[in-house]
Amino acid sequence: MTNLKPVDVAIIGGGWTGLLTAKEITAKTPLSVAVFERGGPRKFIDYAVTMDELDYNIRLRMMQNTAEETITHRHSLKDKAVPVRQHGSFHPGTGTGGAGEHWGGASFRFLPDVFTLRTHLLQKHGAAKLPEDLSIQDWAVTYDDLEPRYWKAEQMTGISGKAGNLRGEKIDGGNIFEGPRQQEYPTPPLKHSYASSMFETAVRKLGYHPYPTPAANLSEPYKNPDGIMRGACQYCGHCQRYGCMVGAKAQPTNTLMPVLAQRKNFQLHTGSWVRRIVHKDGRATGIQFTGENGEEFFQPASTVVLASFTLNNTRLLLLSKIGTPYDPNTRKGTLGRNLTHQVGTNTRVFFDKPLNAFMGAGELGSRISDFDGDIGFTGGEGEPLRLGMISLSNNGNPPIGSFGTMPQGASKSNWGSEWKKAALEWIDRSAGIGLSGEHLAWRQNYMDLDPAYTDKFGDPLLRFTLDWTDHEYKQREFAEKIQARIAREMGGKFDEGARPRARYNVINYQSTHIQGGAIMGTSPENSVVNRYLQHWDVPNLFVIGASSFPQNAAPNPTLTVLALTYWATEVMTDRYFKHPEKLI
Amino acid sequence: MKRREFLILPVAAVGGTLLYTLAGEPLRLQAQNGTVKVPLRFFTAEEAKVITAACARIFPSDASGPGATEANVVIYIDRQLAGPYGRDKYRYTKGPWVESYPEHGYQDKASPGETYREGLKMLGDFASLSPADQDTKLRSIEKSHFFQLLRQHTIEGMFCDPMHGGNAGLIGWQLVGYPGPQMSYRDEVDKHFGQPWRPKPASLEQIARRPGKPWEDEKS
User: E strands, A320-459, where?
Assistant: First the structure.
């Protein structure tokens, strides 16, 4: 083990949160900041020759290598977990920029009631109507706390969109259900495709309130407050799962790294796999990591920021024995608790005209939030039902992935002449209407260390215990009815048959939105970190990311993660560094 | 050392000039004289023949257009199986190996390469069967992991960028009207509503004016 020269701040993870934390601290303090990223180095110019569906969209060349580390999954406490042997339901990133390089760019603010969900549902329905196993709790921050930080995040990334609630004034064409915004979006919305314009027309006719998906894909050239200039989106259709070859999609490598490269008190160590946070008597003393060639290092640090993906934030705390692991039987302990994903369902709609859907952008699309949040619908036994957003997106249909999409019954076989002919007939004539549904936290959904499977170093893998509950099945069934109504209004054909209630599966991609495990709260009894994402037991350790969400909201989490990073780093630079021994 | 194996192909099938046609319109190769020897990385010449024949039943060359044979799907599969994917360099392959629910996907030990070796045994003297018997044979193994891989790889080989060995002469992209990884649709994305718009396809190398780096060629 080699001891390195001490640094003031060691940051684990070189994605959105880790690099944004580094940018904020190095901008406001002279402290030495070192970021440790286990993946390789990346520059945005690398993306010029990566517009390749096979390697990037199918083989997932930008993602973590599951041969080195993965997770295990089981549906319930009674089951035995098995490893997720290849990526399926979500795609953790790696390398400089992390998943922030290959995201789609959807950038929403959460609804105000999301942050006070438990209080809100108790007031509306009464304690008796909340299911016993519901594990939701209020965030330790409010929409008003985050509003100015959302704005910072939107400016840094240059989000394209249209406001629907500007300082309380509802504006048609934006999301009128959103919380009040102080500012219009930095750039106007992206263009519409044929399919998204059909969706918009249909939902308007149905009396809903469509708005363009707010996107980190720039609709026009934009210069952010850091002076970073980026060009406009070209709608090339190679966005999600790819790095952007023109830099129009906000990525850490094209927004944060150019700024950090100028900072003398910043260093980035790629190929540095952090294995433990070292701590003694309630203080973190540094981090232990393995370098590219297998050498072991100890990096002493006055402050440690754990800013990797949700999975690794929880796992590293468990491996480092920081905090009390959650026990779903007794509901005691906090670490690993309230694991949430995102609830989706998709209705594939077929049209009689071609859509030219090979064109698109990561978040080109139209959506409605008429059913987001507490929709006032009651599920079984009068329990509350919370839904989400319904949308149509055109992110570029690739030829391998879309070949063979056809209405049910168009071909008896899924290979051979008849199938080929039907597939050619239906090519470029379908679009999906999706749901991004809120995933509530349940007692039995949590993370801990797997007793049987290990990573390449021999450390235990993270284990998911996760399945859908009656609430999520009802969310889907409700959404599918709305989707069918919209599909009919669009003049499309779709499979009208009832769909089976499918359990959680690790094969089909759902979204890379995994939350919880190191959640924020008002006391050490209900959370791992306080409202500033500072660890209750180890005050010089911050744990930043969607791991802090007590439960997921309907929208994609990245913008909220960025807003929370601004929120936490402001307090670090304004107050914490003066007294790093204390809880803020 | 293993004896080098080759696949003998007509010149026209390895990047020979193709006439561009509109999407969906049957497209026939103009056979040119001569053959070329393509070195194989995974299959023996005999195995390549069997896989070629099986892919041709999955994605036939018929009245609706060219198929797996013209696209050189077998070359694509050969390179994939010899590369890191075929050798499971990116799959978690630690035990214990246990059977689980379908929601947990493929949980067996065999790599794609090993699965093909087993699958080739199932196919036997496939190449010498009549098309009808070939279909019966494939139908009988339809549920196997091998067949599912073969079917998926056939589609991949039809429509991948030609740097991976398949989609020879962009024949797959022409068949479906896919233009390839074009740099910009900014002036087109909100036009052509309801009308097919099919720009002439180009490969990544033609567009970027430098070769891509296919993952299967990476040393590991």
Answer: 337-340, 346-350, 360-368, 374-378, 384-386, 388-395, 430-437, 446-454
